[in-house]
Amino acid sequence: MKYVGPQVWASRPGRAKTAAEVFDHLLSILAFDAPLFEEHGLPVTFVGNPALNLDFSRADPVRLRSQIGAGPDDPILLVLPGSRPSEIARMLPPFEAAVNRLKRTRTDLHVVIPAAPTVAEAVRARVAGWPHRAHVLEGDEAKLDAMKAATVALACSGTVTTELALAGVPMVVAYRLGPVTYAILKRLIRTKWVTLFNIAAQDFVAPELIQDACNAERLTHEIAQRLDDKALRDAQVARQYEALDRMGRGGPDPNDAAAEAVLKLVKARA
């Protein structure tokens, strides 16, 4: 049995056939995985994505606003540049340039950066040189508070985009790779999208600015549109929720579902 299948929907579809030859059963965290493996004879049980079970019940946006000195109607831009040092090195410069442009004409805009422990020191060092205040936060409580308080988010592609969508935050997604890595992956990747809820929706629900498109001008334009247009924000959030529903939002706890699937398979073979 295998828990979490290779991302054959993104690249190297031949891995589905290999998995079918090696494993008896696949526990999938993505609702759109099953047909890709079942066509090769590998039974699949969708158990749900653990990221969809993030608990926001104790998140307090008022607490966050009080902490950073923001008024109840002040816009908050959440900046999430990644959790690995390599991502910080690639993503913070264009994110910084976009934030600087936005702050020139938006003095009431509050910038909040929840930083993972792995990169918090590097983020603080970089942000210390910005010409305006940015609040670097650490810890899960502060991160969830910030997500519930945010007006718009600028996010590095990854699991955090699903978390933001769950929190009801309209976002702009961006990513950069090293030029050689990007050239290789561009030949291998089969999907037009990198964000899971965009893949589920088969559409650019959230804009994705990848590689050369991840630049100050494009980032600023997409973020400004969302800061200025509440109807656009609301529409994007609604479509993000629809995509999350396709991904299995509201389903059983993935850990319980996975355990139940294993026990059922063991019992069937006893």
Name the CATH homologous superfamily of the largest domain.
Glycogen Phosphorylase B
Poorly predicted sequence stretches spanning 5 or more consecutive residues: none
The order of strands across the largest sheet is 6-5-4-7-8-9
Q: Percent range for helical residues?
A: 40-55%
- Radius of gyration, whole Å: 20 Å
Largest beta-sheet details: 6 strands, parallel
Question: Quaternary state, please?
Answer: single chain
Approximately how much beta-strand content do the residues carry? 5-15%
How many discrete structural domains?
A: 2
What's the helix count? 12
The arrangement of helices and strands along the chain is EHEHEHEHEHEHEHEHHEHHH
Structural class: alpha/beta
**Average residue-wise pLDDT:** 91
SSE map:
Blueprint: E1 2-3, H1 14-22, E2 26-28, H2 34-38, E3 44-46, H3 61-68, E4 76-80, H4 85-105, E5 110-114, H5 120-127, E6 134-137, H6 140-149, E7 152-156, H7 159-167, E8 171-175, H8 179-188, H9 196-201, E9 208-210, H10 216-228, H11 230-247, H12 254-269
Parallel strand pairs: 1-2, 2-3, 4-5, 4-7, 5-6, 7-8, 8-9
Helix pairs in contact: 3-6, 4-5, 4-10
Describe this entry's structure for a reader.
This protein has 270 residues and is of the alpha/beta class. The protein folds into 2 domains: 2-48 and 252-269, no CATH class; 61-247, Glycogen Phosphorylase B (Rossmann fold, 3-Layer(aba) Sandwich). Helices cover 49% and strands 13% of the residues. It has helices spanning 14-22, 34-38, 61-68, 85-105, 120-127, 140-149, 159-167, 179-188, 196-201, 216-228, 230-247, 254-269, and strands at 2-3, 26-28, 44-46, 76-80, 110-114, 134-137, 152-156, 171-175, 208-210. The strands form 2 sheets. It has a 6-stranded parallel beta sheet, sandwiched between helices. Strands 1-2-3 form a 3-stranded parallel beta sheet.
